[in-house]
Protein 1
Amino acid sequence: MRIAATISRILAWGIVLQVSVNTVAQPTSLEEVRQSVQSDLEQSLLTLATVREEIAAEKIPLISELNSTEGEIRELRREAARLQSVRDSRELSLIDLTASIQAWESENLYILNLLDEYANRFQSNLKISEIATHSEVTEAYRESSNAPSGLAAVDAQLSIVNAGMDRVRSAFGGSQYQGDIATQDGSLRGGTFTRFGPLVYFISDDRELGGIESAEEGLYARILNLGDELEPITQLTNGILVELPADVSEGVVAQISESRDNLYSQISRGGIWILPILFFAVLALSISIYKAAQILRITLPTTEQVRGVLNKLRQSEPEEAAKLAANLPAPVGPMLVAGVNNSTESPQLLEEILYENILETRPTLNRLLPVIATTAAVAPLLGLLGTVTGMINTFNLIAIFGTGDSRLLSSGISEALITTEFGLIVAIPALLIHALLSRRIKSILGDMEKFALIFTNGLSVPDGAGNHE
């Protein structure tokens, strides 16, 4: 307020000074004007000094008040910072608490899932014969899964965990319980199950049926029958230490061995096209045996024996030459006999006679070989035809029953694969046998041509010149 009053005074003096200046323009004396201005100036300087003193007097308290206000502001800022820190700390604590709660909830859910998984595995790992023994806890678990409160489910899960621990402890020391098994004829037989580790042995009450419990699924347990080896299981049931047969695969090996097809079962599932394949197989096998016996019996003479016949002819002993030729094994022997009988003919005619004999021998040796070649070509085609018909049957079953049960499709797929398998089994040996027999026949005919040339050339050259080939 004092500063405002001082400013008002300065403005008033300015107005007075303006008025004084304006009066200068009026017709007054210069001295009077100078004195008036001098007086006004002095008065203004006095006023200015007074104002400055008042300002200086008021400046000190204002500065103190300003410093005090700034101190209060700094204090308020520190308080605000402290409160902000407290607020941030509370928010961080709330966030940490929320995160901890979420972590506890996640851990709790994880543990519940583990318990639930263990309960499910416990039920699935039970032997069929053990289901009745643990039915109480498993049934309580199934009922608790639909309960609105989670505590009942946890209690049921913990009960299953305890049952599982008891089951493990009893497995190490062995346990016994009563139950029924399903026999091969579908009847039920009661008896005692003795569990020792992963193996469960069964002996009927009348001690006439026993074995190892199979892993096969069903409403009732099934056993792998051990035949007459029941005495060890009986002694085990009575608490006697004995050596027992074991099946570490839990019946899988036995099931695989039982499911393996024999030749008759494969043929019965091969469909109609397996019959012509088997017919060609039997036909080709019979012919192969016959031709192999026929061709392997053929023995070829040596070059020295052929030259012995030539020497007799050169010595003008055709009867002795004919006897030597007749003693040689067929088909070379009959060919040389014809050559000896026509040795007086011209070389060209003699060569034609010998070649005619070779031509007569060739069909005899090659007879029935085309049947083997035909078998090698037809068998894969019949197998392919069986594959097509088998796949058609499979797709017909899919159209009727869908693909839900793959066992319904096994008949068509079996027919397709078995016919292909038998077609290749018949074709490959037939092809090899045909190639071997044909090669042997070509070798025999080639040797006959060689001996024919030796005989013809031996008659055409002078004595001593035909002793080398």
Note: Residues 23-27, 464-469 have pLDDT under 50 and may be disordered.
Protein 2
Amino acid sequence: MLYMLYELSDGDGAFNLFRYITLRSGGAFFTALLFGFIFGQPLINLLKRKQTNGQPIREDGPQSHILDKAGTPTMGGVLILGALTVSTLIWARLDNPFVWLVLFVTVAFGLVGFADDYTKVTKNNSKGVSSRVRFGIGLLVAAIAGYWATMFHPDPLAGQLAMPVFKDVLVNLGYLFIPFAMIVIVGSANAVNLTDGLDGLAIMPVMIAAATLGIIAYAVGRVDVTQYLDVHYVPGTGEILVFCSALIGGGLGFLWYNAPPAAVFMGDTGSLALGGALGAIAVATKHEIVLAIVGGLFVVEALSVIIQVLYFKRTGKRVFLMAPIHHHYEKRGWSEPQIVIRFWIISLILALVGLATLKLR
């Protein structure tokens, strides 16, 4: 919205600063962070009043959670969504289709997650909206996003899968690109959702991934940088950096209250929305495979559940003491802060590896 001041001023005076993505990204970060600090505690107080028993805790989960986490309110993802949405609308160029694409996916998955959280809280049951309903709506949203992306990708890249590291290698998926985009977005949303099981465990890796994807979006949206790095140029994606900055600011504002012991959980409202956002950014920037590297922690968490379920159905035995894998380490005696911080370190390492793919050609 503030970019309009630059356009209305004909590029004269101080308003000329608003044309710079980097300045507006900084503004988006601090606006979202301030939003979190201002509205965080009032939101938590409201959620505590409305949620008498807090988030229902899985009966088959670690027994310590029943004692330590009972009564903690959920739906804290509303704070993150509010912060990043308001901040993005203020600082981003609203004529950019990729900004609206990512916002659409984020808000849509956030609404699905909100419905799930609301059902859990009102019924005081850890089972919320039917998984089929959630999955079906998620696929529909992702299909729209995939089609949307192909409409605004340049013709040489539309329907193509870009391969990292390998120079100028494109795999023509054609009409299969939309189903592929659906898998990326829905898979990312559910992987982050599965990771959100300990205080602060999901939000920091999400912010690390968002920072990495924001840098990638800015790079592939600049023709001079793409020529230097020899990566594919996707006009307009640089503006996604503003969204990513807002996400990081909102995430830090939330982490202030979610740090162990958490005063609030993000719930499916936050985890589905943020995971969907990461998937949408990867699709928009043509870095879907790099997302699997940057978000490798989420991939491992999701795979641990898939492996556990399939192996148990086949043999009646378990590979892990409990899935997702962070619960496995809880069962092995790791403390919650140990797991959280070590997983953060892993996320940072994977992010650096993902960034390295920009230069390795």
Note: Residues 26-356 form one domain.
Protein 3
Amino acid sequence: MAKEIERAGIPVAHICSIITISQTVGANRIVPAVAIPHPLGNPRLPPEEEKEVRRNLLRKALAALQTPIEEQTVFS
């Protein structure tokens, strides 16, 4: 779906746990997630630390959306 949204001219940052799958399906802006069972956080962390993990992931995704690219790019 990310690929189709991009074709419409809307940039998409695909946050994923398994980068190779995102590359295979053609996502252009790939942001690595935390882990498979909890891609957007770590419930084992104290609440404030987990919020910071989520904030950092969101910042990476927003930076990816603002970055012009020519080919698939992984934003580490």
Note: The longest helix spans residues 47-66.
